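Because discrete structure vocabularies remain unfamiliar, it helps to consider an illustrative case, giving the amino acid sequence and backbone structure tokens:
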Amino acid sequence: MTSNFARRTISLGVVLGIAAFVASVFWALPAHADAGNPSFVPGTSGLALPGLSLSFNNPQKPQEVVSVLRIMMMLTVLSLAPAILIMMTSFTRIVVVLSFLRQALGTQQMPPNQLIVGLSLFVSFFVMAPTWKQVSSGALEPFLNEKIDQTTALSRAEAPLRKFMFAQTREKDLELFLNLSKEAKPKTREDVPTYVLIPAFVISELKTAFQIGFMIYLPFLVLDMVVASVLMAMGMMMLPPAVIALPFKLLLFVLVDGWELVIGSLVKSFG
């Protein structure tokens, strides 16, 4: 029962996060204002604002208490939806690799954290676009059009994300969490619980990101060693090697078109 509750909670967070993402990215506002619409607000490009009312009263029936608890649970899951989505997408690998790249260059806070996180988010949107489209067409749109119920929508929304995570998860990491959960050995991928798949996917992404970061560090490490050796041979031991090596690192990175190589390799690594 606990496994089912955890799985449904995670699935609800996924669907809520996806709904927010799809609404913010793909929602097309009407081009002309509707003067006959009483809910039209000037300056909103014809956007009709929905009404919202909130009231509190003393519950008289147990069903009313259950409804309140469900709303509180939904709000809690909604607040955790961004973190859930970040852990279930390509964001982890991308942001870790870009952080390694900045440290390898030795540029301190350039690019700044906001830029690294923003670039990681938009590259993640690009990588996850096929998955989002499957979720939107197969689960979100039918649910909003009242063609399917909530349980069916959760199941359909969960399937594309599980497929993506399975493609990036190592069997060794998945086996680790299956053993830790003390669940019966699943016969197929459909039998693997989502709450077991997510941490296995995250540590697989971290391992892959560290491997890519190591490969990025190597050429810059060699350059640091060469600069340090030259300075020592010239007797300039008081001059920090990092100060001299930084311009050469930047020159090397620009000459090989480093951003194209790094971002291109990251996107292709999810293929």
